[in-house]
Specification:
MetI-like fold
């Protein structure tokens, strides 16, 4: 049988390697394309503001935004706001993950535990996290505990269900193989189920980290005296859109950095999968 690629090439229908279905590109090409997109957006932003197509109140110029960020960096305020937000997101996400992982694995493996826990998790999951903000303020005040609780509520229930589905996706043949080898149930769980589901679980944690950032900012927008979200709220009161845009850029950079860090760590941890 002739090779499919050879047939496609002779017929003149070979797609570009960059846009081939399921095709691969090098790390350098990936970075170049991503940089090109960000550069294009920056040029458009500069062009719109330089041509006065939008009032500065609604869209401040890149120079003004960067100048304000440089000023805040010089005073130490930007670094302090970044530090407290990173602390809150790190601790809140770790607490949520530490609790969600074992529960998700258990209900993914045992139907009885799934019947006992999964409906309740689904019940809470559909409640808007924003509605819990006033309650958490009543319960814990406006300190860091309240922020951590909002992050927990916003990510924990989603993580449990994601981990459950990841565990359920482990092929049944793997479990049957363990039983054929007369391994005890806890050993099958430890040596077969969890390792097999780990790559998918890692991807689920990476996705839920984005939600954690969202809920942190929501908590800081509503009830806080520090942090990136708090500064955005303060800037809104005085129509400081350059400050708002600047802090939004910082949030985007922090989110992108943590996401790519987890993506890189996943490649290193599960390199046997040849993660792209």
């Amino acid at each position: 049988m002739q090779d499919v690629d050879s047939v496609m090439e002779r017929s003149g229908r070979t797609p570009s390697r960059l846009f081939a279905l399921g095709g691969r590109i090098s790390a350098g090409e990936f970075l170049a394309i991503a940089a090109l997109v960000f550069t294009g957006l920056a040029v458009l932003w500069f062009a719109f503001t330089a041509a006065d197509l939008v009032r500065p109140l609604f869209l401040p110029s890149p120079e003004k935004v960067l100048s304000r960020l440089a000023e805040l960096w010089g005073t130490g305020q930007l670094l302090a706001d970044m530090g407290i937000s990173i602390y809150r997101i790190s601790l809140g996400f770790l607490i949520s993950t530490a609790v969600a992982l074992p529960i998700g694995v258990i209900i993914g493996c045992y139907r009885a535990w799934e019947a006992a826990i999964e409906p309740f998790v689904d019940f809470i999951r559909y409640m808007p996290v924003v509605a819990f903000v006033p309650l958490t303020i009543l319960w814990t005040g406006t300190g860091d505990v309240q922020k951590l609780l909002i992050i927990f509520i916003g990510t924990f229930f989603q993580q449990v269900l994601l981990v459950m589905d990841n565990v359920k996706s482990v092929p049944r043949d793997f479990i049957n193989l363990g039983r054929t080898l007369e391994m005890p149930e806890w050993r099958i769980l430890q040596r077969i189920v969890v390792p097999s589901a780990s790559p998918a679980i890692w991807d689920s944690l990476r996705i839920s980290l984005g939600w954690a950032w969202t809920w942190l900012v929501v908590a800081e927008l509503v009830a806080a005296t520090s942090g990136l979200g708090y500064r955005i709220t303060t800037a809104q009161r005085f129509f400081q859109t350059d400050l708002i845009f600047g802090y939004l850029l910082i949030l985007g950079i922090l989110g992108l950095t943590t996401d790519q860090a987890m993506k890189y760590a996943g490649r290193r941890l599960f390199r046997y999968l040849s993660v792209r």
